[in-house]
Write a structure and sequence with these properties.
Order of helices and strands: EHEHEHHEHE
CATH class: Alpha Beta
Radius of gyration: 14 Å
Strand order of the largest sheet: 4-3-2-1-5
CATH architecture: 3-Layer(aba) Sandwich
CATH superfamily: DsrEFH-like
CATH topology: Hypothetical Protein Ychn, Chain: A
Helix content: 25-40%
Number of domains: 1
Distance between the termini: 21 Å
Number of helices: 5
Strand content: 15-25%
């Protein structure tokens, strides 16, 4: 079976891309493939924002990512520099910057582009959404 890295560069609700990445991850693990990790870059970093508030009739993609990660041990990695530009920081970075709040969900890891390179070297394929 194949192993995949997913690269998500779109915001969760601006297009179908982030949802398609989520559905691809589900289909891959259901077909006995391995998803080594999901790397959120550019506007895709908004998928890790814990402060999203949705109407009750909208699909909660943020929670769906956290669930698939927990069930299938898929790391959710957010590019730290791209996320910071969009106001998304983890608790440690917020504290170091003297900010009162952080917005990155604890299930998402704040990482650098080097981590993407490592993830790619460990995967057979990369699919970008």
């Amino acid at each position: 079976m194949s192993s995949f890295t997913l690269l998500v560069t779109s915001a969760p609700y601006s297009s179908q891309s982030a949802y398609s990445a989520y559905r691809f991850a589900l289909a891959a693990v259901a077909s006995s493939h391995q998803v080594n990790g999901v790397f959120f870059y550019q506007d895709g970093t908004l998928n890790g924002n814990a402060l999203q508030q949705l109407s009750s009739d909208e699909y909660d993609l943020h929670e769906a990512w956290k669930k698939v990660s927990a069930e299938h041990n898929i790391p959710l990695m957010v590019c730290v520099s791209a996320a910071t530009k969009r106001g998304i920081t983890n608790a440690q970075d917020a504290e170091e910057a003297d900010q009162l709040h952080h917005s990155l969900s604890t299930e998402f890891q704040s990482v650098g582009l080097g981590d993407l390179a490592i993830l790619l070297s460990e995967s057979d394929r990369m699919v970008q959404f």
